[in-house]
Specification:
The protein is α+β, with helices and mostly antiparallel strands. Helices cover about 50% and strands about 20% of the residues. It has a five-stranded antiparallel β-sheet with strand order 2-1-5-4-3, sandwiched between helices. Strand 1 and strand 2 form a beta hairpin. It starts with a helix and ends in a 7-residue tail after the last helix.
Length: about 200
């Protein structure tokens, strides 16, 4: 398991696109799953920053960070049990595909060897994902990548519906869905299901 290679408490892989999370490829435990779900729902967190900046993002002490960031994500991540978090971009050449997140259940930075092991693991994961996806028909996701993954297909369906309802882009529709979910302290998935089931109309 990836967290055992690095010596972290847990890990998760988030696929990214247009600088926003597309969905979780896998997680190692309940805390990792909660961290990935938070980042997907809120559209902020270490994986978003690591992908946008194309560099490793580290927060060795979530409870007492050097600077204020991830104002919505941090308190909920602490509640979930994370005390330190590290995000490593997944890329092959110029192609960025996602982020590998690690968390610790105690504060503190990664050791030099842990950091090096994480970088090596990122290369293996990124190449593996691209190799698997290469055999998929254009515009589809490889079936192997869907096993155990959570790509929130209902959320993408809801974003398409809101886009049509409001006459906005799908990206703007996704932002509105996230804002609605956050303001009401609901998961993005629950809001999306209400939209798809026609129980909720934004606007």
């Amino acid at each position: 398991m990836s967290q055992e290679v690095v010596g972290a408490s847990g890990a998760g892989i988030m696929l990214m696109g247009r600088e926003l999370p597309l969905g979780s490829l896998c997680t190692t435990n309940a805390v990792s799953a909660a961290i990935e779900e938070l980042q997907y729902t809120l559209g902020e967190g270490p994986c978003v920053d690591a992908y946008r900046q194309d560099q490793v993002v580290s927060e060795p002490n979530l409870a007492d960070p050097v600077g204020a960031r991830w104002l919505a994500f941090t308190p909920k991540a602490l509640d979930a049990g994370a005390r330190a978090i590290f995000a490593f971009p997944l890329r092959v050449g110029a192609a960025r595909i996602g982020v590998l997140d690690f968390y610790q259940d105690r504060p503190g930075p990664l050791a030099e060897k842990q950091h090096a092991d994480a970088l090596a693991l990122c290369s293996v994961v990124a190449h593996s994902v691209l190799d698997i996806q290469a055999d998929a028909p254009p515009g589809t996701l490889a079936a192997e990548l869907e096993v155990g993954a959570d790509f929130h297909f209902v959320v993408h369906n809801a974003a398409g519906a809101v886009s049509v309802q409001l006459g906005v882009s799908v990206t703007e529709a996704m932002i509105r869905l996230r804002a609605y979910a956050f303001s009401r302290e609901r998961s993005l998935r629950d809001v999306a299901e209400d939209v798809v089931d026609r129980k909720l109309r934004l606007g």
